[in-house]
Amino acid sequence: MLKVLIVDDEPFIAQGLQVLIDWKSYGYEVAGVVYNGMEAIEFLREHTVSLILADVKMPVMDGISLLKKIREENLSDAFFVIISGYGSFEYAQQAIKYKCTDYILKPVSKQQLLELLGRLKITSHDQVEENNKHVISEKLIAELIKALEENHVLKIKSIANLVYDEFDKGKMESGMVQVNLNYLLVKLTHLVVALDDSVDQNEIIHRIKKNFLEMYSKENRECFEKFMLEYAEYLNNQRNYVSGGVLCKVEREIKQRYQENLTLKELSKKYYVNSTYLGQQFRKKYGVSFKDYLNQYRIEKAAEHLLRTDEKIYLVAEKVGYKDLDYFVNKFISIKGCTPTSYRKQLKYSK
User: Fold this and answer.
1) Over the stretch 54-101, which tens digit does the pLDDT of each residue have?
2) pLDDT at 146
3) At what angle do helices 174-195 and 110-122 cross, to 10 degrees?
């Protein structure tokens, strides 16, 4: 029976890992649960385990520091698996350096854990150590990033193929492929954040994972190259958004869809921009909030209807996007200084 040590400062997660699967059915036994790296060190001085599952961010001693101490002081030759959230991908390279066996994301699914355990059970420790020595060249990654920033098609194709070769030439184990891909994910995300630190990073990560990480396979070199070219174009478009292009698009959306239930949140997702930042930039450019601008545009359209037609007030309200008649009337008064009915009468009288 292989012994397992779980290290996580969140009791709910630590306990959840304990009951997520029937460990004994798969030849494992949870030997201990501790809540920071220092407690793990104390545990390992007294007990021998075959697998350590550790969170990255913990008080007293984090997961990377724990891994480093274990390797440098030879406290254990156990498989070491980092469990992390999106925001901790910057630790991926350090994890590889200190012979991390795998790097998986929260929340950990049952299937994901079972696949990990099955892989570790049939893989000798010597084989894993040999795989862990293979890390994609930092120089090569830097060259790829530079080519993406320049949107240089020929360079992107050439370097993307070299990066792809790195995955194959070392016969890299699938877990280590994922670790290296996670590190590349960090770099790609940082390219967008460097343009504007207010972008919604979760949206960017979702975009990358959906279009790249999930489709990756060692038989799909063309898809790898295609994604890199598309990402370079996306970066180029993002530069235009940051320089004000996205605000013009939002203004156009208002003029074309003002009758709909249009929200800043919806548009921020559509254009991959943080909603708070988009709202601030909108106010800076137009002098009013997105909501006030939308209301003003709707009321101007309502005024046109009142001038040109004899439609009932509630129908005019509905046509310009208001379902609540009282709210429409109040907005009309605040912007035009009178009720819709009075506005219509004044226009007819002035004729």
Assistant:
1) 998 888 998 889 999 998 898 998 889 988 865 455 566 667 667 787
2) 87
3) 130
Question: Which residues partner with 30 through β-bridges?
Answer: 4
Mean pLDDT of the chain: 81
Residues 110-124: tens digit of each pLDDT: 887 887 887 777 554
Flag whether pLDDT at 276 surpasses 60.
yes
Distance from C-alpha of 120 to C-alpha of 102, rounded to nearest angstrom:
10
CA distances from 8 to 32, 38, 218, 254, 272 (A): 11, 11, 33, 47, 33
Residue 94, Cβ density class (10 Å: 0-12 exposed, 13-18 middle, ≥19 buried): middle
The 3-class secondary structure across 93-133, one letter per residue, is: HHHHHCCCCEEEECCCCHHHHHHHHHHHHHCCHHHHHHHHC
3: enclosing H helix or E strand = strand 2-7
> 118-153: buried (b, 16+ CB within 10 Å) or exposed (e) per residue?
ebbeeeeeeebeebbebbbeeeebebbbebbeebee
Q: Helix (H, G, I), strand (E, B), or coil: what is residue 10? A: coil
129-167 confidence digits (pLDDT tens): 446 445 677 788 889 988 988 889 999 999 988 888 877
51: β partners: 4, 79
* DSSP of 223-241: HHHHHHHHHHHHHHHHHHI
Check residue 306 and give its pLDDT. Answer: 92
